[in-house]
Every structure is written in structure tokens, then in C-alpha cells.
Design brief:
Oligomer: single chain
Helix content: 10-25%
Strand content: 25-35%
Largest sheet: 13 strands, mixed
Amino acid sequence: MSKKKVPVIDIDRTIYDIKDKENASFKVSKGLTPDIVRQISVEKNDPKWMLDFRLKSLEVYNRLKLPVWGPSLHELDMDNIVTYVRPDTEMRGNWSEVPDDIKNTFERLGIPKAERDYLAGVGAQYDSEVVYHSVRDEVVKQGVIYTDMESAIKEYPDIVKSHFMKLVKPEDHKFAALHGAVWSGGSFVYVPAGVKVSIPLQSYFRLNAPGAGQFEHTLIIVEKGASLHFIEGCSAPKYNVTNLHAGCVELYVGEGASLRYSTIENWSKNMMNLNTKRARVEKNGKIEWISGSFGSKVSMLYPMSILSGEGAKAEFTGITFAGQGQTLDTGANIVHDAPHTYSVVNARSISKDGGVSIFRGGVTVTEKARQSKSSVSCESLMLDSISRSDTIPAMDIRNDESDVGHEARIGRISDDAIYYLMSRGISEPDARALIVRGFADPVAKELPMEYAVEMNNLINLEMENHSTGLKGGKE
């Protein structure tokens, strides 16, 4: 039988790897020192409390060690990372006023079209600053606040100060502390009690500068009985130097409120993606995480849901694609800290060409979280014999009145399944594509593909025919 393996082509990154000529109006020197942190604070016209917060976070960063678990971070050298790059423009509320080079980048990524067709508001960040922000009048009339973080600090200082890095504290880990010291850009959303935002909001983060870091902060507050769908997109062109992403997301979901947070991360393969995301959910509230991780050289990303009110719910749906040279260490953490709370985690991963995909899930059920339920399911598909997939669950159950389950499956494409489909008249490439897409579909269908053009490229795993098929002959 003459037969060759049919490979899965890497995700087409053509539009993402187009580089703009670097045209920053200002950037700090490489490295991380108190003087650099002060310089960032001056450039951003921080209030004194924020400067103090940054400097204290830097002290924590210098005190904490790198994690001793997870993928190697030996290629990350903060002495060679530029932590702040300001593009040569001010933030605009009119798309026509955005400089052509930056505007063309976001046009290629489909962001303006998505805004016109599907979105109630858009924020676009380029390197360290938000360059465009717009929200529909009907959303503003509902009392919804959607703006960049710098504007929020100046216009809503009490709200920001009482919530900023209260869920994710600098002391949590080294890269949370780094974020607290050099954060820049990001989004602030406030949804008043009872307000239902029927059309999604989206922020898109584009890192163009080589050897730089992006440290955006997203803070969302959804008050009692309100609802929101927020979409986050990320991408960067590929360089031969290490880039760093260490953003932070803090989500506050009020009593009876609901928030869906969708993310598509398509960083380039020179990116270290060390993001931190956390939500706190009050009584009868609900958080939904929809996560697609397709890029970066190394990722460490584990969104956490703290169910602090009775009847609170959390759902996590994620898909990861690890190709050659990638180690994607992702997962989810759930903390049940009130009675009758509920969570479900459904994660799937695909690895090929030696890629490493690791699911790291944690469920904690405290003594007071009686009659709680949690279900964790993770499935991994390896497309060749040189790839790797690991599942690392951790369950900490502190009462005997709760129901917690974990299921994991790891496997390869079955030759029998291929043969069966081919016996029904389906070609080998189409058979393999059918199996891969079928595996990804339960998760992929939850991703908001209709809102951003690039999502189709990220989810659609194209198959190339390098096979002579199941024909007679010698191997």
C-alpha cells in the first residue's frame, strides 16, 4: 500500500505577519528599572496613587521568583524588552482620523468592518496605547461606559481605584507584579444595574514593535441583573527577537448578572504570552469564558472564576492549537466559595509537528460551598507521533456534599476511522479534515466567528493532499 501522511497546514498567518514600519513617537529604553517605571508614569500623566502602585509592584516583581513549574521561560530577558512604545498618534474617535499605516493594519484584520456589521463598540490598541475608540449612541444612552483605561482613571477615579488589581494582585505571581509596574492601555467597561447590552463590544490588541512588551489592562464591571458580551482579539507579526505579552483582565459580575468573555489569541511564534485573567461572580451571576489560543511560542494562561455568591455559575470553553516550536500551557481555574455554585469546563487541544499542548485545570470547593457541582472535560488530539499532549488536573474538595467530576482523553486520528470514511467515497485528505473539524466543532462553534474576519482562518484547519490514497501496491 503506497501511503504518506497527510499533514495539517499551519494556520495561515499572512495578514498577521505584515509588519508596519516602526514609527513610534516615544519609547522607553530596554530594561526594567524604577526610572523607567517613573518615566512611563510621567508619559501617561498618572495620578500619584498610580505612580505609587507602579513602584510598589516593581518591588514585588524584583522580590518574586519565576515559576518553577510549566514551560521554560529561559528565553525571556527583561533587560532586552521595551516596556512602553507610544504610537505616533493620539486616540481618535473617528476612524478617518487614524494615521494611514495604523488604519491599514486594522483594515486588513477586518476590525472596522466588524464594527460596522456586528459590534456596539470597538477599542483598538496599537503597541502601548489605544489609538481608536468608538461606541454606539444607543449604548451610551443606556448608561454604559466603554472607554480606554487611561480615560477611565481620569474620569471615573473612584470606581477604578476601588477595583484596579484587587482581583489580580501584584503579589499573586511575578508577571502580575510586572503588569502592575508597567501596564498601559486596555479597556474599561461599566454596565449599570439591569442594563442588557444586546450587541457585543470588542477590543483588539496589536503589537507591532519588535522586542517590545504589551501590558494592557481590561477592567469590566457588570452590575446587578445586567448582561454583556465582550470580545478580545490579539495578534502580532513575527520577528526574530522575543516579544512579551503580560496583560491583565479583571471581571466583576454582579448579582444575577451575566458576562460572556470571548478571546482569540493569535500571537506570533516569537511571543511569550503570560496573561492573567480573573472573574468574581456574585449570587446567581454567570461568567462564560470562550477561549481560542493559536499563537505564541510559549503561553501560560489559566482564566480563574471565583464563585463567591450562592448559585453563581462559571462555564469555560477553550480550544488550543500547538504547532512546531510552540508550548501552549493553558487551562482554567474554578473556585467554588458559596453554596449551590456550578461550573463546567470543556477544553480541547490539537498538536502537530512537535507542538506541545498542556491542559492545566484546577477546581477548589471550599467548606462553605455545599451542594456545588463541577464538571471538567478535556480532550486532546495529536496529529503525529512527535507531538505531545498532557493533562494536569488538580482537585481540592473540602466538603463531602458536592459533586465533582473530571474526564480526560488523549488520542490520535484512527487509521480505522480514515479507512471507514474512505470506503464511503471520501478522499483521505477530506476524511482527515472531517475528523479534525469534527473534533474541534463543539468548541469552535462557540467562538464569535461572525465578529472578526481572522477567526475563520484560525479555526479552519486546511488539509493538503500529499497522499496517493488507499491504492494497491507496496509500501
